Amino acid sequence: MDIFVAFFRSGMLGFGGGPSTIPLVHKEVVGTFKWMNDQEFSDVLALGNTLPGPIATKMAGYIGYRVGGIRGMLNAVIATVLPTILLMLLLLTSFNKVKDHPRVEGMTNGVVPIVGVMMATLTWDFIKKTKKGFGWKKGVFLLLGSFIVMEILNVHPGIVIGGLLVIAVTISDKKEKIDIQVKGNSESL
């Protein structure tokens, strides 16, 4: 039931589509229910961005499956899609009557900066956590390099993420030596 509640809340409050729900899903999955840590969530987000289709349903499906199996996946996907369907039926039938009203137009314009702040906050959290994984130099290099490739060279984000995943898999980590004390003697592995 928690899976349904978490994704239904995110779906109801996620004005603007899939990307705007990501910070809300993050808050529910990592903060409220603690089903994942930040690193796991960022991995799911990266993988979800490489696959075709809406990001919200892909993330809901994976997280729901991980937390509750097939039943959890179905609950999460239904909870993600249901608010949209209900709101579309309710609002779109009456929206044409009030779409040109100044208050409705103002509300629509006012939501855009709020979504921008939510995305910036999530981005800043990921940047701060980069220090633990890559360190600042590699993190800033990846951030700037990805920005240049996506914004200046117009490469699709899925291709950039896929390329980074391939690089991460093919480059082997330098293994640190582990010193083990064995009956007073030190041995390195």
Tell me the Rg in angstroms.
21 Å
Ranges with pLDDT <50 over ≥5 residues?
none
Q: Count of DSSP E strands? A: 2
Shape descriptor reads globular
Estimate what percentage of residues fall within beta strands.
Answer: under 5%
Reported for the largest beta sheet, the result is: 2 strands, antiparallel
Amount of helix: over 70%
- Average pLDDT works out at 81
Distance between the termini: 47 Å
The largest sheet has its strands arranged as 1-2
Number of helices: 7
Secondary-structure class: mainly alpha
Order of helices and strands: HHHHHHHEE
What does the model show?
The chain has seven helices and two strands. The N and C termini lie far apart (47 Å). The chain is mainly alpha-helical. The longest helix has 44 residues, at 55-98.
Keywords:
single chain; 189 residues; mainly alpha; two-stranded antiparallel ribbon; 7 helices; 2 strands; globular
Short description:
By secondary structure, the protein is mainly α. It is built from 7 helices and 2 strands. α1 packs antiparallel against α2, α2 packs across α4 (55-98) and α3 packs across α7 (157-170).
What's the helix and strand layout?
Blueprint: H1 2-13, H2 18-32, H3 38-50, H4 55-98, H5 102-133, H6 136-152, H7 157-170, E1 179-182, E2 185-188
Antiparallel strand pairs: 1-2
Helix pairs in contact: 1-2, 1-4, 2-4, 2-5, 3-4, 3-7
